[in-house]
Specification:
By secondary structure, the chain is an alpha+beta fold. It contains 4 helices and 9 strands, in the order αααββββββββαβ. It is elongated, with a radius of gyration of 42 Å.
């Protein structure tokens, strides 16, 4: 009986080393994992990696690609005649939006500012108008004001003002209207003061008469404003900067 044990073991060994089982017993076994290859997905991933690297390289390259553009050297008032001294230059990224290359300076000298331009602003073409800045249906009227006819701080080009009819004796006016009548509900100051002639080198010309202003007015109101101004019967008050006059500087 003991001699049958080795024979049984050898039989089991031959059975284990035989061909794989077939039939119902084999169907009960789970199939091993299959590694599915997706070459298209792998290629797409490589494209993303390469594209990201190229994009990063382009950003770094463009950040160092800078050009000289025009900036406002100091504040420029609406309606001001622009000179070369009003411009400076700044170096900015080449893809900066709505900038003017420094090489185009000559194209803007002699134009008029259509809006208030703060100092150090990157200028663009819509801020300037070639030729006359007076729109159709408007006229420029000069007014000389005494100290009691203007704000204490004085007026500057670009201010918006309201014009009142006044009289020294408090009753008689050149237009026949009562004192206190509103001549202009809102008007743009396009010039203020008389520039001093011949400033020394390195100095800025200043206004010699802060009581002299030029107003942009509707042509229908120009006659009575001129008459009142000639009689010294106009007083001006400054309005909020956001006030829009009925006629204003032309903007593109």
């Amino acid at each position: 009986m003991p001699s049958a044990v080795p024979t049984l073991k050898r039989a089991r060994t031959r059975a284990d080393s035989g061909p794989p089982a077939t039939g119902p017993a084999a169907a009960d076994r789970l199939p091993g994992p299959v590694r599915e290859r997706r070459p298209a997905l792998i290629a797409f991933g490589l494209v993303l990696v390469v594209g990201g690297a190229l994009g990063s390289a382009l950003v770094v390259h463009r950040s160092g690609d800078r050009v000289d553009v025009l900036v406002a050297r100091h504040e420029v008032a609406p309606g001001a005649l622009v000179t070369a001294d009003d411009f400076g230059t700044a170096r900015v990224a080449a893809d900066g939006a709505a900038t003017v290359p420094a090489s185009a300076l000559a194209n803007f000298v002699g134009t008029y500012a259509t809006t208030r331009i703060p100092a150090d602003t990157l200028v663009n073409r819509t801020m300037f108008l070639a030729g006359d800045s007076v729109p159709a249906g408007a006229a420029v009227v000069g007014v000389v004001l005494g100290p009691e006819q203007r704000p204490t701080q004085g007026l500057a080009s670009g201010d918006v003002v309201r014009a009142y009819l006044v009289a020294a004796d408090g009753s008689t006016t050149v237009t026949g209207q009562p004192p206190g009548t509103v001549l202009l509900d809102a008007a743009r100051v396009v010039a203020a003061g008389t520039p001093a002639a011949g400033p020394a080198a390195g100095q800025v010309a200043v206004a010699s008469d802060s009581g002299t202003v030029s107003l942009l007015v509707p042509t229908g109101d120009a006659a009575q404003v001129v008459a009142a101004a000639a009689a010294g019967q106009v007083a001006l008050v400054r309005l909020a900067e956001a006030t829009t006059p009925p006629v204003d500087l032309v903007r593109e």
